[in-house]
Design goal:
The complex is a heterodimer of chains A (240) and B (268). By secondary structure, chain A is α/β, with parallel strands linked by helices. Helices cover 30% and strands 28% of the residues of chain A. Chain A has a domain of 120 residues: Rossmann fold (3-Layer(aba) Sandwich), CATH 3.40.50.300. Chain A is built from six helices and ten strands; from the N terminus they run ββββαββαααβαβαββ. In chain A, strands 6-7-8-4-9-10 form a six-stranded mixed beta sheet, with helices on both faces. The longest helix of chain A is centred in the last third of the chain and has 17 residues. Chain A is globular, with a radius of gyration of 20 Å. Chain B has 268 residues and is mainly alpha-helical. Chain B is built from twelve helices and no strands. The longest helix of chain B is centred in the middle third of the chain and has 29 residues. The relative contact order of chain B is 0.15. Classes of the chains: A alpha/beta (240), B mainly alpha (268). At the A-B interface, β1 and α2 of A face α2, α5 and α12 of B.
Chain lengths: 240, 268
Protein backbone atom coordinates (compact mmCIF):
# COMPACT_ATOMS: atom_id res chain seq x y z
CA UNK A 1 0.00 0.00 0.00
CA UNK A 2 1.49 3.29 -1.07
CA UNK A 3 -0.27 6.58 -0.86
CA UNK A 4 0.53 10.25 -0.38
CA UNK A 5 -2.19 12.77 0.29
CA UNK A 6 -1.58 16.47 0.82
CA UNK A 7 -4.33 18.81 1.88
CA UNK A 8 -3.74 22.55 1.67
CA UNK A 9 -0.10 22.20 2.62
CA UNK A 10 1.55 25.51 3.45
CA UNK A 11 5.26 25.75 4.15
CA UNK A 12 6.78 29.05 5.14
CA UNK A 13 10.39 29.79 5.90
CA UNK A 14 10.95 32.58 8.34
CA UNK A 15 13.92 34.71 7.39
CA UNK A 16 15.49 36.05 10.52
CA UNK A 17 18.12 38.71 10.75
CA UNK A 18 16.82 40.63 7.75
CA UNK A 19 15.81 44.21 8.14
CA UNK A 20 12.12 44.06 7.76
CA UNK A 21 11.18 47.68 7.13
CA UNK A 22 11.72 47.51 3.41
CA UNK A 23 9.43 44.55 3.05
CA UNK A 24 6.72 45.62 5.41
CA UNK A 25 3.27 45.50 3.92
CA UNK A 26 4.72 44.60 0.60
CA UNK A 27 4.49 41.44 -1.36
CA UNK A 28 7.14 40.92 -3.92
CA UNK A 29 6.82 38.70 -6.92
CA UNK A 30 9.92 37.73 -8.79
CA UNK A 31 10.39 35.34 -11.65
CA UNK A 32 11.90 32.82 -9.29
CA UNK A 33 11.49 32.00 -5.63
CA UNK A 34 8.57 31.69 -3.29
CA UNK A 35 6.45 34.65 -2.42
CA UNK A 36 8.07 37.00 0.06
CA UNK A 37 5.64 38.33 2.58
CA UNK A 38 5.43 39.24 6.24
CA UNK A 39 3.59 37.13 8.77
CA UNK A 40 1.29 38.33 11.52
CA UNK A 41 4.24 39.33 13.66
CA UNK A 42 6.08 41.16 10.90
CA UNK A 43 8.69 38.50 10.29
CA UNK A 44 9.78 38.20 6.72
CA UNK A 45 8.68 34.82 5.46
CA UNK A 46 9.13 32.97 2.23
CA UNK A 47 6.02 31.04 1.36
CA UNK A 48 7.60 28.05 -0.35
CA UNK A 49 4.40 26.04 -0.69
CA UNK A 50 1.00 27.69 -0.84
CA UNK A 51 -2.06 25.51 -0.15
CA UNK A 52 -0.77 22.57 -2.11
CA UNK A 53 -3.17 19.64 -2.42
CA UNK A 54 -2.76 16.36 -4.26
CA UNK A 55 -3.24 12.65 -3.97
CA UNK A 56 -0.56 10.29 -5.27
CA UNK A 57 -1.63 6.70 -5.77
CA UNK A 58 0.09 3.51 -6.78
CA UNK A 59 1.35 3.67 -10.32
CA UNK A 60 1.85 7.42 -10.27
CA UNK A 61 5.12 8.63 -11.77
CA UNK A 62 4.98 12.26 -10.83
CA UNK A 63 7.16 14.93 -12.39
CA UNK A 64 7.50 18.18 -10.47
CA UNK A 65 8.33 20.95 -12.87
CA UNK A 66 8.86 24.66 -12.43
CA UNK A 67 11.48 27.37 -12.12
CA UNK A 68 14.27 27.38 -9.56
CA UNK A 69 12.69 28.14 -6.23
CA UNK A 70 9.18 27.25 -7.32
CA UNK A 71 8.87 24.83 -4.39
CA UNK A 72 9.85 21.50 -5.98
CA UNK A 73 12.57 20.60 -3.49
CA UNK A 74 10.53 21.85 -0.55
CA UNK A 75 7.68 19.61 -1.64
CA UNK A 76 10.05 16.65 -1.83
CA UNK A 77 11.28 17.40 1.69
CA UNK A 78 7.71 17.57 2.94
CA UNK A 79 7.08 14.17 1.36
CA UNK A 80 10.30 12.87 2.91
CA UNK A 81 9.00 13.96 6.31
CA UNK A 82 11.78 16.45 7.04
CA UNK A 83 9.48 19.47 6.99
CA UNK A 84 6.08 19.53 8.58
CA UNK A 85 3.50 21.84 7.02
CA UNK A 86 2.74 25.06 8.88
CA UNK A 87 -0.91 24.50 8.09
CA UNK A 88 -2.62 21.74 6.20
CA UNK A 89 -1.74 18.10 6.43
CA UNK A 90 0.30 15.47 4.71
CA UNK A 91 -0.28 11.76 4.95
CA UNK A 92 2.22 9.29 3.57
CA UNK A 93 1.76 5.53 3.63
CA UNK A 94 4.51 3.13 2.64
CA UNK A 95 8.28 3.15 2.95
CA UNK A 96 9.97 6.23 1.57
CA UNK A 97 13.37 6.42 -0.09
CA UNK A 98 14.42 10.04 -0.32
CA UNK A 99 17.35 10.27 -2.72
CA UNK A 100 17.64 13.99 -2.24
CA UNK A 101 21.28 14.05 -1.25
CA UNK A 102 22.87 10.63 -1.52
CA UNK A 103 26.09 11.67 0.18
CA UNK A 104 24.29 12.89 3.31
CA UNK A 105 25.71 11.42 6.50
CA UNK A 106 28.87 10.07 4.90
CA UNK A 107 31.93 10.70 6.98
CA UNK A 108 35.10 11.13 4.97
CA UNK A 109 37.34 10.15 7.88
CA UNK A 110 35.63 6.77 8.25
CA UNK A 111 36.23 3.86 5.90
CA UNK A 112 33.86 3.01 3.09
CA UNK A 113 32.81 -0.07 5.00
CA UNK A 114 31.97 1.92 8.16
CA UNK A 115 30.05 4.39 6.06
CA UNK A 116 27.88 1.66 4.60
CA UNK A 117 26.71 0.81 8.11
CA UNK A 118 26.22 4.43 9.11
CA UNK A 119 24.30 5.38 6.03
CA UNK A 120 22.21 2.20 6.15
CA UNK A 121 21.27 2.94 9.77
CA UNK A 122 20.13 6.40 8.73
CA UNK A 123 18.04 4.79 5.98
CA UNK A 124 16.35 2.76 8.70
CA UNK A 125 17.97 -0.59 7.95
CA UNK A 126 18.83 -2.90 10.83
CA UNK A 127 22.30 -4.25 11.41
CA UNK A 128 21.27 -7.68 10.14
CA UNK A 129 19.70 -6.27 7.01
CA UNK A 130 22.86 -4.27 6.39
CA UNK A 131 25.08 -7.35 6.81
CA UNK A 132 23.04 -9.08 4.12
CA UNK A 133 23.45 -6.13 1.79
CA UNK A 134 27.02 -5.16 2.46
CA UNK A 135 28.67 -7.56 -0.02
CA UNK A 136 26.29 -6.55 -2.74
CA UNK A 137 26.99 -2.86 -2.07
CA UNK A 138 30.76 -3.41 -2.15
CA UNK A 139 30.52 -5.40 -5.39
CA UNK A 140 28.32 -2.84 -7.01
CA UNK A 141 30.53 0.11 -6.11
CA UNK A 142 33.59 -1.72 -7.55
CA UNK A 143 35.94 -0.16 -5.05
CA UNK A 144 37.96 -3.32 -4.31
CA UNK A 145 40.23 -2.93 -1.30
CA UNK A 146 39.50 0.76 -1.13
CA UNK A 147 36.37 -0.15 0.80
CA UNK A 148 38.63 -0.59 3.87
CA UNK A 149 40.25 2.82 3.37
CA UNK A 150 39.13 6.14 4.84
CA UNK A 151 36.82 7.85 2.41
CA UNK A 152 39.01 10.94 2.22
CA UNK A 153 41.32 8.86 0.01
CA UNK A 154 38.54 8.41 -2.54
CA UNK A 155 38.19 10.40 -5.71
CA UNK A 156 34.89 12.21 -6.04
CA UNK A 157 33.76 9.64 -8.57
CA UNK A 158 34.50 6.76 -6.18
CA UNK A 159 32.64 8.50 -3.40
CA UNK A 160 29.59 8.98 -5.60
CA UNK A 161 29.69 5.35 -6.67
CA UNK A 162 29.62 4.16 -3.09
CA UNK A 163 26.93 6.66 -2.12
CA UNK A 164 24.85 5.53 -5.07
CA UNK A 165 25.35 1.85 -4.29
CA UNK A 166 24.17 2.34 -0.70
CA UNK A 167 21.22 4.59 -1.55
CA UNK A 168 19.87 2.23 -4.18
CA UNK A 169 20.55 -0.97 -2.25
CA UNK A 170 16.92 -1.47 -1.28
CA UNK A 171 13.57 -0.92 -2.95
CA UNK A 172 10.93 1.31 -1.40
CA UNK A 173 7.27 1.99 -1.94
CA UNK A 174 7.81 5.66 -2.57
CA UNK A 175 10.87 7.02 -4.32
CA UNK A 176 11.75 10.70 -4.17
CA UNK A 177 14.39 12.20 -6.42
CA UNK A 178 15.68 15.71 -6.94
CA UNK A 179 16.95 15.42 -10.51
CA UNK A 180 17.63 11.98 -11.98
CA UNK A 181 20.69 10.41 -10.43
CA UNK A 182 23.57 9.68 -12.74
CA UNK A 183 27.02 8.74 -11.58
CA UNK A 184 30.31 7.39 -12.79
CA UNK A 185 32.11 6.86 -16.05
CA UNK A 186 30.58 5.24 -19.12
CA UNK A 187 30.54 1.61 -18.01
CA UNK A 188 29.56 2.30 -14.42
CA UNK A 189 27.04 4.87 -15.55
CA UNK A 190 25.24 2.26 -17.60
CA UNK A 191 25.12 -0.20 -14.72
CA UNK A 192 23.92 2.56 -12.38
CA UNK A 193 21.22 3.59 -14.82
CA UNK A 194 19.97 -0.01 -14.96
CA UNK A 195 19.94 -0.26 -11.17
CA UNK A 196 18.11 3.02 -10.79
CA UNK A 197 15.61 2.02 -13.46
CA UNK A 198 14.81 -1.18 -11.59
CA UNK A 199 14.38 0.73 -8.31
CA UNK A 200 12.04 3.14 -10.04
CA UNK A 201 10.10 0.22 -11.52
CA UNK A 202 9.87 -1.42 -8.08
CA UNK A 203 8.58 1.76 -6.49
CA UNK A 204 4.84 2.10 -6.36
CA UNK A 205 5.05 5.87 -6.47
CA UNK A 206 7.87 7.97 -7.83
CA UNK A 207 8.17 11.72 -7.47
CA UNK A 208 10.87 13.36 -9.52
CA UNK A 209 11.75 17.02 -9.59
CA UNK A 210 13.54 17.86 -12.79
CA UNK A 211 14.25 20.51 -15.39
CA UNK A 212 14.92 17.91 -18.05
CA UNK A 213 11.88 17.99 -20.33
CA UNK A 214 12.79 14.94 -22.35
CA UNK A 215 13.57 12.87 -19.30
CA UNK A 216 10.36 13.58 -17.42
CA UNK A 217 8.30 12.94 -20.55
CA UNK A 218 9.94 9.54 -20.91
CA UNK A 219 9.72 8.50 -17.28
CA UNK A 220 6.60 10.13 -15.84
CA UNK A 221 2.87 9.84 -16.35
CA UNK A 222 1.73 12.78 -14.29
CA UNK A 223 3.02 16.33 -14.48
CA UNK A 224 2.68 18.92 -11.76
CA UNK A 225 3.80 22.43 -12.47
CA UNK A 226 4.68 24.65 -9.53
CA UNK A 227 4.96 28.40 -9.62
CA UNK A 228 5.75 30.45 -6.54
CA UNK A 229 4.75 27.50 -4.41
CA UNK A 230 1.37 27.08 -6.07
CA UNK A 231 0.29 24.16 -8.17
CA UNK A 232 -0.67 25.77 -11.47
CA UNK A 233 -1.31 22.58 -13.38
CA UNK A 234 -1.65 18.89 -12.66
CA UNK A 235 -2.21 16.73 -15.70
CA UNK A 236 -1.36 13.44 -17.33
CA UNK A 237 0.32 15.07 -20.28
CA UNK A 238 3.33 17.34 -20.36
CA UNK A 239 2.12 20.95 -20.21
CA UNK A 240 2.82 22.85 -23.38
CA UNK B 1 1.23 29.09 13.51
CA UNK B 2 -1.25 27.85 16.04
CA UNK B 3 -0.82 29.15 19.55
CA UNK B 4 -2.95 26.66 21.42
CA UNK B 5 -1.18 23.46 22.34
CA UNK B 6 -3.08 20.56 20.90
CA UNK B 7 -3.03 17.05 22.24
CA UNK B 8 -1.43 15.60 19.09
CA UNK B 9 1.43 18.11 19.40
CA UNK B 10 2.24 16.85 22.88
CA UNK B 11 1.92 13.25 21.75
CA UNK B 12 4.28 13.84 18.82
CA UNK B 13 6.76 15.49 21.17
CA UNK B 14 6.77 12.45 23.46
CA UNK B 15 6.97 10.16 20.45
CA UNK B 16 9.97 12.13 19.16
CA UNK B 17 11.79 11.83 22.50
CA UNK B 18 11.01 8.12 22.74
CA UNK B 19 12.03 7.31 19.20
CA UNK B 20 15.14 9.44 19.47
CA UNK B 21 16.29 7.54 22.54
CA UNK B 22 15.57 4.18 20.91
CA UNK B 23 17.78 4.82 17.87
CA UNK B 24 20.77 3.63 19.90
CA UNK B 25 22.73 2.45 16.90
CA UNK B 26 22.59 5.77 15.07
CA UNK B 27 23.44 8.07 17.97
CA UNK B 28 26.17 5.81 19.19
CA UNK B 29 27.74 5.62 15.73
CA UNK B 30 27.54 9.36 15.15
CA UNK B 31 28.90 10.24 18.59
CA UNK B 32 31.76 7.77 18.43
CA UNK B 33 32.72 8.90 14.95
CA UNK B 34 32.85 12.50 16.11
CA UNK B 35 35.28 11.59 18.86
CA UNK B 36 37.38 9.45 16.54
CA UNK B 37 37.42 12.18 13.95
CA UNK B 38 38.92 14.60 16.43
CA UNK B 39 41.72 12.21 17.31
CA UNK B 40 42.13 10.45 13.98
CA UNK B 41 45.76 9.43 13.37
CA UNK B 42 46.90 10.40 16.84
CA UNK B 43 48.46 7.47 18.67
CA UNK B 44 46.76 7.97 22.03
CA UNK B 45 43.46 8.98 20.45
CA UNK B 46 40.71 10.00 22.85
CA UNK B 47 43.05 9.37 25.79
CA UNK B 48 44.45 12.81 25.06
CA UNK B 49 41.32 13.96 26.84
CA UNK B 50 42.42 12.08 29.93
CA UNK B 51 45.94 13.45 29.67
CA UNK B 52 44.92 17.06 29.22
CA UNK B 53 42.48 16.90 32.12
CA UNK B 54 45.15 15.10 34.16
CA UNK B 55 47.67 17.89 33.49
CA UNK B 56 45.12 20.48 34.55
CA UNK B 57 44.33 18.66 37.80
CA UNK B 58 47.98 17.91 38.56
CA UNK B 59 48.82 21.59 38.16
CA UNK B 60 45.83 23.19 39.84
CA UNK B 61 45.58 20.74 42.76
CA UNK B 62 48.84 21.51 44.54
CA UNK B 63 48.68 25.23 43.64
CA UNK B 64 45.22 25.78 45.07
CA UNK B 65 45.86 23.66 48.13
CA UNK B 66 48.82 25.96 48.86
CA UNK B 67 46.92 29.16 47.99
CA UNK B 68 43.94 28.23 50.12
CA UNK B 69 46.01 26.55 52.81
CA UNK B 70 44.29 23.18 52.54
CA UNK B 71 45.70 19.69 53.25
CA UNK B 72 46.95 18.43 49.88
CA UNK B 73 45.58 14.87 49.93
CA UNK B 74 41.89 15.49 50.38
CA UNK B 75 41.88 18.79 48.52
CA UNK B 76 43.56 17.16 45.53
CA UNK B 77 40.72 14.61 45.35
CA UNK B 78 38.21 17.44 45.68
CA UNK B 79 39.68 19.35 42.76
CA UNK B 80 40.12 16.25 40.60
CA UNK B 81 36.50 15.16 41.02
CA UNK B 82 35.18 18.69 40.67
CA UNK B 83 37.20 19.45 37.60
CA UNK B 84 36.27 16.24 35.77
CA UNK B 85 32.61 16.92 36.55
CA UNK B 86 32.95 20.51 35.43
CA UNK B 87 34.37 19.33 32.10
CA UNK B 88 31.34 17.10 31.65
CA UNK B 89 28.80 19.73 32.64
CA UNK B 90 30.38 22.62 30.75
CA UNK B 91 30.90 20.41 27.69
CA UNK B 92 27.28 19.32 27.78
CA UNK B 93 25.88 22.83 28.12
CA UNK B 94 28.11 24.24 25.43
CA UNK B 95 27.60 21.38 22.94
CA UNK B 96 23.87 21.21 23.62
CA UNK B 97 23.52 24.67 22.08
CA UNK B 98 24.79 23.17 18.83
CA UNK B 99 22.69 20.02 18.91
CA UNK B 100 20.29 21.12 16.16
CA UNK B 101 22.50 23.67 14.42
CA UNK B 102 25.23 21.10 13.79
CA UNK B 103 22.73 18.58 12.45
CA UNK B 104 21.33 20.98 9.89
CA UNK B 105 21.91 18.77 6.84
CA UNK B 106 20.21 15.80 8.48
CA UNK B 107 17.27 17.77 9.79
CA UNK B 108 16.45 19.49 6.52
CA UNK B 109 16.54 16.33 4.42
CA UNK B 110 15.68 13.35 6.55
CA UNK B 111 12.90 12.19 8.74
CA UNK B 112 14.71 11.49 11.99
CA UNK B 113 13.49 12.20 15.52
CA UNK B 114 14.93 15.59 16.53
CA UNK B 115 15.73 14.21 19.96
CA UNK B 116 18.23 11.91 18.27
CA UNK B 117 20.54 14.87 17.67
CA UNK B 118 20.41 15.81 21.34
CA UNK B 119 21.09 12.25 22.47
CA UNK B 120 24.09 12.16 20.11
CA UNK B 121 25.56 15.24 21.81
CA UNK B 122 24.87 13.95 25.31
CA UNK B 123 26.31 10.53 24.48
CA UNK B 124 29.45 12.03 22.94
CA UNK B 125 30.06 13.98 26.14
CA UNK B 126 29.36 10.87 28.19
CA UNK B 127 32.01 8.96 26.26
CA UNK B 128 34.46 11.78 26.82
CA UNK B 129 33.58 11.77 30.51
CA UNK B 130 34.28 8.03 30.61
CA UNK B 131 37.82 8.76 29.43
CA UNK B 132 38.24 11.57 31.95
CA UNK B 133 36.87 9.55 34.83
CA UNK B 134 40.05 7.45 34.73
CA UNK B 135 41.57 10.39 36.61
CA UNK B 136 38.90 10.23 39.29
CA UNK B 137 39.52 6.51 39.79
CA UNK B 138 43.28 7.04 39.94
CA UNK B 139 42.90 9.75 42.57
CA UNK B 140 40.43 7.72 44.58
CA UNK B 141 42.90 4.82 44.74
CA UNK B 142 45.31 7.11 46.61
CA UNK B 143 42.71 8.56 48.94
CA UNK B 144 39.83 6.09 49.01
CA UNK B 145 36.50 7.34 50.31
CA UNK B 146 34.77 5.39 53.08
CA UNK B 147 33.36 2.43 51.21
CA UNK B 148 29.62 2.36 51.81
CA UNK B 149 26.33 2.45 49.97
CA UNK B 150 26.47 6.23 49.55
CA UNK B 151 28.92 5.63 46.70
CA UNK B 152 26.04 4.21 44.71
CA UNK B 153 24.28 7.55 44.99
CA UNK B 154 27.28 9.11 43.23
CA UNK B 155 26.60 6.87 40.26
CA UNK B 156 22.90 7.66 40.48
CA UNK B 157 23.91 11.33 40.49
CA UNK B 158 25.74 10.92 37.18
CA UNK B 159 22.71 9.20 35.65
CA UNK B 160 20.37 11.95 36.85
CA UNK B 161 22.79 14.57 35.53
CA UNK B 162 22.73 12.98 32.07
CA UNK B 163 18.95 12.68 32.21
CA UNK B 164 18.80 16.42 32.84
CA UNK B 165 21.27 17.04 30.03
CA UNK B 166 18.63 15.75 27.61
CA UNK B 167 16.10 18.42 28.45
CA UNK B 168 18.79 21.08 28.56
CA UNK B 169 19.83 19.89 25.10
CA UNK B 170 16.30 20.18 23.75
CA UNK B 171 15.75 23.63 25.23
CA UNK B 172 19.18 25.07 24.46
CA UNK B 173 19.15 23.44 21.03
CA UNK B 174 15.83 25.11 20.21
CA UNK B 175 16.79 28.50 21.64
CA UNK B 176 20.16 28.47 19.91
CA UNK B 177 18.66 27.47 16.57
CA UNK B 178 16.23 30.37 16.76
CA UNK B 179 18.45 32.97 18.43
CA UNK B 180 22.02 32.65 17.26
CA UNK B 181 23.43 34.85 20.03
CA UNK B 182 22.58 32.26 22.66
CA UNK B 183 25.57 29.93 22.06
CA UNK B 184 27.96 32.89 22.29
CA UNK B 185 26.29 34.11 25.45
CA UNK B 186 26.37 30.66 27.04
CA UNK B 187 30.06 30.23 26.27
CA UNK B 188 30.89 33.56 27.88
CA UNK B 189 29.06 32.51 31.03
CA UNK B 190 30.72 29.10 31.08
CA UNK B 191 34.21 30.61 31.00
CA UNK B 192 33.66 32.38 34.26
CA UNK B 193 31.52 29.53 35.61
CA UNK B 194 34.59 27.44 36.38
CA UNK B 195 35.65 30.06 38.92
CA UNK B 196 32.22 30.93 40.28
CA UNK B 197 31.28 27.32 41.03
CA UNK B 198 32.84 25.60 44.04
CA UNK B 199 35.41 23.51 42.18
CA UNK B 200 38.76 25.07 43.01
CA UNK B 201 37.43 26.29 46.36
CA UNK B 202 34.98 25.02 48.94
CA UNK B 203 31.60 26.36 49.84
CA UNK B 204 32.63 26.69 53.54
CA UNK B 205 35.22 29.27 52.51
CA UNK B 206 32.43 31.64 51.49
CA UNK B 207 31.30 32.23 55.08
CA UNK B 208 28.32 34.59 54.97
CA UNK B 209 28.28 34.26 51.18
CA UNK B 210 27.29 30.58 51.12
CA UNK B 211 24.08 31.56 49.36
CA UNK B 212 26.17 32.47 46.35
CA UNK B 213 27.01 28.82 45.77
CA UNK B 214 23.61 27.57 46.85
CA UNK B 215 21.80 29.51 44.11
CA UNK B 216 24.05 27.89 41.51
CA UNK B 217 22.27 24.82 40.12
CA UNK B 218 25.54 23.37 38.84
CA UNK B 219 26.82 23.27 42.44
CA UNK B 220 23.95 20.97 43.43
CA UNK B 221 24.42 18.66 40.45
CA UNK B 222 28.10 18.39 41.38
CA UNK B 223 27.46 17.92 45.06
CA UNK B 224 25.16 14.90 44.65
CA UNK B 225 28.04 13.15 42.87
CA UNK B 226 31.03 14.60 44.70
CA UNK B 227 29.87 14.57 48.30
CA UNK B 228 29.90 10.74 48.80
CA UNK B 229 33.28 10.50 47.08
CA UNK B 230 34.68 13.01 49.59
CA UNK B 231 33.35 10.92 52.44
CA UNK B 232 30.79 13.59 53.29
CA UNK B 233 27.80 11.30 52.79
CA UNK B 234 24.65 12.02 50.86
CA UNK B 235 23.70 15.66 50.48
CA UNK B 236 19.94 15.73 51.04
CA UNK B 237 19.63 19.40 50.27
CA UNK B 238 21.33 19.08 46.90
CA UNK B 239 19.31 16.00 45.98
CA UNK B 240 16.14 17.94 46.72
CA UNK B 241 17.21 20.81 44.47
CA UNK B 242 18.23 18.38 41.72
CA UNK B 243 14.88 16.62 41.99
CA UNK B 244 12.93 19.85 41.64
CA UNK B 245 15.06 20.98 38.69
CA UNK B 246 14.59 17.62 36.95
CA UNK B 247 10.83 17.75 37.33
CA UNK B 248 10.41 21.41 36.39
CA UNK B 249 12.94 21.19 33.59
CA UNK B 250 11.29 18.26 31.86
CA UNK B 251 7.80 19.72 32.28
CA UNK B 252 8.69 23.06 30.73
CA UNK B 253 10.76 21.36 28.05
CA UNK B 254 8.03 19.03 26.90
CA UNK B 255 5.63 21.92 26.68
CA UNK B 256 8.06 24.02 24.65
CA UNK B 257 9.15 21.07 22.53
CA UNK B 258 5.54 20.19 21.72
CA UNK B 259 4.90 23.75 20.71
CA UNK B 260 7.97 24.42 18.60
CA UNK B 261 9.19 20.98 17.46
CA UNK B 262 7.78 21.32 13.95
CA UNK B 263 9.34 24.78 13.57
CA UNK B 264 12.91 23.68 14.30
CA UNK B 265 13.72 22.55 10.71
CA UNK B 266 12.85 26.07 9.53
CA UNK B 267 15.07 27.78 12.08
CA UNK B 268 18.29 26.10 11.11
Amino acid sequence: MALAIARDVVVEFPVYGRRQQSLKRSVLRAATGGILATDSRDHVVIRALDKVSFEFNEGDRVALIGHNGSGKSTLLRVLAGAYEPVTGSIEVQGSVAAMLSITLGLNTEATGYENIFLRAALMGLSKIQTRDLVDDICDFAELGDYIQMPMRTYSSGMLMRLAFAISTSVSSDILLMDEWLSVGDASFGEKAARRLKSRVDDAKIMVLASHDMGLVQRSCNRFITLEHGLIVSDSTSYPT
Amino acid sequence: MSTALSRPALASAFLDVGQGLLQVRIWHMLAWQEIQQRYRRSILGPFWLTISTGCMVAGMGPLYSKLLNQPLGIFFTYIAVGFVLWQLIAGLISDCCQSFISAESYISQMKLPLTLHVVRVVWRNTLMFAHNSVIVFAVLVFSPPPFDSSLLTSIAGVVVLLFNALWVGLVMGMLSARFRDIPQFVNSILQVGLFLTPILWKIEMLGDWRWFALINPIYHFMEVIRSPLMGAGISGQSWAVVGVITLLGWTVTMYAFAKFRARIPFWI
